[in-house]
Amino acid sequence: MRSWRSKRESRGLEAELRANRPEPSSELVHRLEARVREDGRHSRAGSFRVAFAGALAAGVLTALASVGGLGYAATGAGQAVEKAKRVVHQHGVTTVHKSAARAQYGKPKAKKCPAGRKRVRGVCRKVKKAKGVNFRRPPFTG
Amino acid sequence: MFRGDPLANPEPLIKRVYAYVAYRVGDGPDAEDITSETFERALRYKKSYDSRKGEPVAWLIGIARRCIEGRPATPELSSEHLEVSDHRDLEDDALRRISLSGAVGRLEERDRELIALRYGADLTARQIAEVQGARTNAIEVALHRALGRLRATLEGEDDSSTPVRKSQAGR
Which residue of B11, B97, B150 is in closest CB contact with A33? Predict the structure, then answer.
């Protein structure tokens, strides 16, 4: 006991607290280490996959550019888009306005109304003259 | 905000977090559970770690503190089961460790927290100030006082245990 107390006095309380800090069991350390490393592997694998896909795309583009295939690919893509548009595009109903059939069987033209009458809702009606103020020329003043 | 892997080198971090937790709640299964929970949370929120705000250990200690606070209140740490007379067969080192953890356990919560942060997690006074949102000077003073109280506790323990030892020696 005396040796312990003398040791404590010599090393100081702080050093003693550091030296005797509680330590985890090796089982806990290994378990947690494995857990952390496993998680790191998963996240690394994910980022590796993304990086690999990016590198592959860059490689293909470089290869195409070097043989002028980029323009060719662009033209091909443009043409493909046009074709697709043509296939997918919906046309409206085409109406022929002037044709022999329409001239014969189309709607009969409405007859012209006689003078002084105007067609209102398909019926010729008399047009009333507007009752306006009679315009008088101002008197000549010299 | 993910800047570098805070858990790139986990072993020393596990030891420091465990030491902190053990000084707070006592060495044993509870401390192991809290340490495990701390690392689980750290893995879950790894991407929120920002190296500009502090070192990984300070970040982990922050998580551990929340884990401890989130647990149901444990009875005050006591060293009744760590009576010196019951450990006469133990080596001096083990005896010293038990006595120290018992004395730390009898300190007030605030002192225990400071001792755990300084000597368990091995944080500097500045880091402790950052964790606790206090001034470095205030932390240094509080630590000095906490150490004084710990010393007094240990000396009181020594005085009370000496007669037991003497009586055992007399047999």
Answer: B11
Structurally, chain B folds into a number of domains equal to 2
Q: Which pair of structure tokens corresponds to residue B133?
A: 């949102």
> Where does a domain end: B29, B51, B74?
B74
Quick one: B53 and B88 in the same domain? no
Give the closest-approach CA distance of B130 to chain A in angstroms: 21
Burial B111-144 (b: 16+ CB within 10 A, else e): bbbbbbbbbbbbbebebbbbbbeeeeeebeebbe
From chain B, the residues in CB contact with A18 under 8 A are: 119, 122
Interval B20-61: pLDDT, tens: 999 999 888 999 999 999 999 999 988 888 888 888 999 999
Contact A20 B97 (CB under 8 A): yes
Question: What is the model's pTM?
Answer: 0.58
- Would residue B171 count as lying in a domain? no
Q: Is residue B135 assigned to a domain? A: yes
Give the chain B residue nearest A44 (alpha carbons). B5
Q: Quote ipTM for the complex.
A: 0.72
CB contact under 8 A, B18 and A1: no
* Same domain membership, residue B66 and residue B101: no
Gyration radius from chain A CA atoms = 49
